[in-house]
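hi! just following up on the protien thing from before. the input was this:
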Amino acid sequence: MARNLLIFDGDCGFCTTSVHWVARRFRDEVKVEVVPWQRLPLDDYGLSREDVALYAWWLEGAEASGEQRQGLRKWRGHRAAGKALRACRGVWPWLGALLLTPPPLSWLWAAGYRLVARFRYRLPGGTPACKI
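and the predicted 3d structure came back as:
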C-alpha cells in the first residue's frame, strides 16, 4: 500500500510541535508517516538539504522500498500543510482545502508560510538551528 510522508525539520521545536499536533488528528484510514528530514535518505526522494531547510514536504506514494521513488507526488510549504490538514478529522480538512486553492489566494498562503518559516526561530520552541 502506498504511504504518505510528512517531512519536517526535526531540529526545530516549533516545527516538531506543529507536525505532532497535526499527526494526532490524522484520520485512521490515511496512512501517514511523520519523519524529520534528518532521518531520511533525501536523495531517494529527490530532495536536497536546501529543499528541506526551507519547507515542510508532503509526499504521496512513497513506497517503503526502492531507489528513486516512482510515481511520487510532492507538495511543499503551504501546500504540504494543506495536504496534511486534508488528512485530518473534524473541521481541519476545510482549512486544508483553503490552503490548496489556486492563485491568487495561494500567493497569500505561500507568503504567509515563507514569513513563518523565515522567523520560526523566534516562535515558541524555535531554536538557532531554525534560522534560515
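The chain has a mean pLDDT of 90.
The chain has five helices and four strands.
cheers
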